[in-house]
Amino acid sequence: MGFFTEMFARPRPQEQALYRASLALIYAMSRADRAEAGIKPADFPRIARTPALR
Question: Mean of the pLDDT values across residues 15-26?
Answer without folding.
Answer: 87
